[in-house]
Design goal:
Blueprint: H1 2-24, H2 31-83, H3 88-107, H4 112-123, H5 131-145
Helix pairs in contact: 3-4, 3-5, 4-5
């Protein structure tokens, strides 16, 4: 019984080796055909390397443009904050105040006097003139004006 298992194992191994070797020698090339395929492969490789290099250069230039635009945007944003006599932290604090007032006025919770008080708090700052807040501030005024109590 042991000899049969060993014999079957050896035959399977030999058969699988034969298939692997047969698959590798499936196509035979002449020296010229082989050289032609190698040359074509090298040409494709060189073209791809050239494309890769040009794409890397383009990506680098675009990254530089992005960095320039981001720095320009930061400068313009600081200038905009300067116009309304505010800093970045002042705008963040105002944003919280504005959102709480917006929530109260839009949900029509509380009395009209409370809503008007919140609207006055929001309207007291020049920060309301920033593009982020101006249209929303105008909407709050309309909601407060049309609110019936």
């Amino acid at each position: 019984m042991k000899h049969n298992k060993f014999l079957v194992l050896v035959l399977l191994f030999a058969f699988s080796i034969n298939l692997i070797l047969f698959a590798q020698t499936d196509q035979e090339y002449s020296e010229e055909e082989w050289q032609k395929q190698m040359d074509e492969g090298m040409m494709r490789k060189n073209e791809m390397i050239f494309q890769l290099n040009s794409l890397n250069q383009e990506a680098d230039s675009l990254n530089k443009v992005i960095a320039e635009k981001e720095s320009e945007f930061a400068i313009e944003l600081e200038l905009l904050y300067w116009y309304v006599d505010a800093t970045k932290s002042d705008v963040a604090d105002y944003r919280k105040l504005f959102e709480s007032a917006e929530k109260i006025i839009n949900s029509k919770s509380g009395t009209k006097e409370e809503q008007l008080q919140k609207l006055e708090e929001v309207g007291a700052s020049k920060i309301k003139c920033l593009p982020e807040f101006w249209k929303r501030y105008q909407t709050l005024i309309k909601h407060t004006a049309t609110w019936d109590n």
